[in-house]
Design goal:
Mean pLDDT: 92
Number of helices: 8
Order of helices and strands: HEHHEEHEEEEHHEHH
Number of domains: 1
Structural class: mainly alpha
Distance between the termini: 33 Å
Length: about 220
């Protein structure tokens, strides 16, 4: 058991070092896309409508931040996660498509992340145009483009393509660059980091709650 603990701790330290390099790369990407990006503090649209998949080592890092919150905040987050989990169970009774159930991240508080410095990789990269290597490099835009936000100044929603007219107005001669930032790519571009199981973030939260089996009964 102690050996397993040391292994997890060692893996977490490797992940933290990898995260520093990833953050540097993502910061450079966002800077290169400044004319298309409207992300700002207090927006939080991307935190309100997803299912938030997180690996074990990512959640080990999140847990470090969670433990630093006061007990009242911890209880609120736990209660949110339990309610979402119950709602999901009810939803799946009538709709088996697990990807159709989305929710507000339980760490979201007053339009900001209560654990921002500990947020997972997908939250750090979200907002950028990226290639999905698992789907033959399909180009993916952040869904906020349809809300008139990121990349909306060059995207034509009616044709689902980049608008040459909009690009000309901005003096662009090529479409915005799509980065290799799919979740699977970020997990592969590591230095001996073993990410472990991947689950929804609400599941990781709940599994840390004592006697959670009783609490999630519908």
């Amino acid at each position: 058991m102690f050996r397993f603990y040391l292994l997890r701790k060692s893996m977490l330290e490797k992940y933290k070092k990898y995260l520093q390099k990833l953050d540097q790369k993502i910061t450079e990407y966002f800077k290169s896309q400044e004319q298309f990006i409207v992300c700002k503090p207090g927006c939080a649209i991307c935190c309100k409508n997803s299912y938030y998949i997180v690996s074990q080592v990512e959640y080990d890092f999140i847990r470090e931040g969670f433990k630093q919150l006061n007990p009242e905040k911890q209880d609120i987050i736990n209660e949110k996660a339990i309610k979402i989990y119950k709602d999901r169970k009810e939803f799946l009774k009538i709709n088996p498509d697990i990807l159709k159930f989305t929710y507000k991240c339980p760490f979201l508080e007053d339009a900001s992340c209560s654990l921002y410095e500990y947020r997972p990789m997908i939250c750090r990269s979200h907002g950028l145009l990226y290639k999905d290597v698992d789907k033959e490099n399909k180009i993916n835009l952040p869904y906020c483009v349809d809300l008139g936000l990121n990349y909306a100044n060059v995207w034509d929603g009616s044709t689902k393509s980049f608008s040459l007219e909009k690009m000309r107005k901005l003096g662009l001669i090529s479409t915005p660059e799509a980065f290799d930032l799919s979740y699977s790519s970020m997990m592969k571009s590591t230095e001996d980091v073993e990410f472990g199981d991947v689950r929804m973030i609400i599941e990781w939260i709940i599994f840390d709650i004592p006697n959670y089996e009783e609490l999630i009964k519908v």
